[in-house]
Predict the structure of Phage portal protein.
Amino acid sequence: MFQKTFGRFGGAVANSFRTRFLSGYTPVFTPFGDDTYESDVVRATVDAIARNAAKIKARHIRRVDGKVKQVGGNIERFLSVRPNPKQNAYAFWYKVFTQLLLRSNAFILIDRAGPMEGYRIRGFYPVDCVMAEMLETANEYFIRFRMRYGETYTVPYADVIHLRRFFNVDPDFGSGNEKPLLPTLELINATNQGIINAIKSSAFVRGILKFTTNLNPLDRKKQTEDFIRDYLNPENGGGIAATDVKADFTPMNPDPKMIDAKQMELIERKVYNYFGVNQKFINGSYTEEEWNAIYESVIEPTFAIQTSLEATIKIFSDNEQYHGNEIVFEANRLQYASAKTKLELREMVDRGAMTPNEWREVFNMAPVEGGDKPIRRLDTAQVNEAPPAKVPSTPSKGGEEEDDDGDE
């Protein structure tokens, strides 16, 4: 798949060189995050964020004269349904966002056709590389990927959607998680090992059986086995052991130290704080307000906004962007609203702010025919619109109305 996709760039960067900056730094990215993924706390946290972020929907829109038009088309279908022949949109974005969280960098290759087909987009592929480095030639940037099995591919940076986290030290790539996160993970691992060893300690030496006479190894081993069988066997209900003058038994009472639940929770909370979430988000017990807070602080800026900007710049030409073409990512935040909030949205329907089918989608109900048309109550009108003309009242039968003076 990658050979077919990257192959058309062979030989295009023969005269390229590594990008260098005034400080002499050469931007090279080497992911480290796979080791942190082995931690159950990190994996649960990354999974919770990625599976929620992967539900965002891509939309191809066009902004013209302050109005937004839904364009749709192949690009939207690729990004929201099936980016490539091997992945649906949810699996695609889940993998991309997982790499972003673990490695602070994620790369998406835009597969374009040749000039005979107008460079049309044929799909999108996540790049799972072990190293990436920036190259420059003829005032154009390229990025070289080294794959897991040794293959090396070089593509124009303009055809790569590059997402980053902790973008500070490196001029091109986001900083990794190893330095800030590994000490906490080592503490969690040491705690888990301590619990395991404490459990195993019950099977270790329970005491010392000291013989007062010299015995050969075989007799000493037999005497020890007989003592264990007779007195240390769980079937010995009496709980009393007896020895003669030939041996003395000194019991050992191991007292392993284990971390308490509050301390363990504090350590795990450091991992949650690092990724910007909490325990309720991990186990799905969050409220409507808590979900909105995490969406606005984590999912929207890290994934939706960044991916929208980067995809718009890399997918569309300058001329297409000038004419208002844009990729936006949306999430149906109302799905996490309480039943009371959902029911209150009916006031948005009869005022034309939501269509009936949009309201039904909030309740996970199927659309109905004609439900995509906005409706509005008869006692409302658009701003600056002339009010409806009054219908003249019909005089009541049985006589003429009196004039203002009361004369008939």
Q: What stands out?
A: The chain has 13 helices and 13 strands.
